[in-house]
Input
Amino acid sequence: MYDAEGSWAMISDDTLCDLMQRVYDNYEEAMEKGRLASEHVLQEWTWKQAGERAYRLLEQLKYEGVNNGSYSTNTRTDLSGSG
Output
């Protein structure tokens, strides 16, 4: 499981079992969510787009610096490609 920033989240065994049961009970819904997620990844995470995002982040580091306090790894960076 991931949080909104893409970090791993720990879940309990009971929660995992509940989520697995939900997928089993709602198979068509799970398939549709998977299809939409696949479509999103194929459209938004091409090698070109990933390279452009990485380049923008490196440029940000270059101009803002890592050690001057203006850049924090805890700051959420917009990776959507929209700005």
Notes: Residues 18 and 24 are 10 Å apart (CA to CA). Confidence is low (pLDDT under 50) at residues 71-77.
